[in-house]
Specification:
- Strand 1 and strand 2 form a beta hairpin.
- With 119 residues, the protein is mostly helical.
- The chain has a two-stranded antiparallel sheet with strand order 1-2.
- It folds into two domains: 60 residues, no CATH class; 39 residues, no CATH class.
- It is built from four helices and two strands.
- The longest helix is centred in the first third of the chain and has 15 residues.
- It is globular.
- The chain is 33% helix and 8% strand.
- Bound molecules: zinc ion.
Length: 119
């Protein structure tokens, strides 16, 4: 795992808080069920450095660093359809076509917290 020097301390604090149960936003069932994913774009949050950050620099347990880099969504007015289109170029290696990627994301994105209200 590659970590930047500036992020390593807060990552250590993040991990220790999680292990000692001091991070209530990281629900245990979320961590245990088939991996944590960004609740905006579906990106797997495999490493502490993948998580987004609050404005004060503390990690956000729901969203990735691309969607939620600094206490707010990167594109607050983005719709689910726009998010799907912007994700397709990054996951072409997982699908046989753009249409297959779009269909899969349209099925799964409404399950994510950010888009749950828009269905
Ligand atoms: Zn994301």
């Amino acid at each position: 795992m590659i970590q930047t020097a500036e992020g390593s301390l807060e990552i250590a604090e993040f991990l220790s808080g999680r292990l000692s149960g001091k991070a209530p936003y990281l629900k245990e069932e979320t961590m245990m069920s088939n991996g944590t994913v960004c609740q905006s774009c579906g990106m797997p949050l495999a490493n502490p450095g993948d998580f987004g950050k609050e404005a004060d620099g503390s990690p956000n347990g729901d969203y990735c660093r691309h969607c939620y880099p600094n206490g707010a969504f990167n594109s607050p007015n983005e719709t689910m359809e726009q998010m799907i289109e912007s994700c397709i170029p990054f996951c072409r290696d997982r699908y046989e076509s753009d249409a297959a990627a779009r269909a899969d994301m349209r099925e799964h994105f409404p399950l994510l917290k950010r888009w749950a209200r828009t269905t």
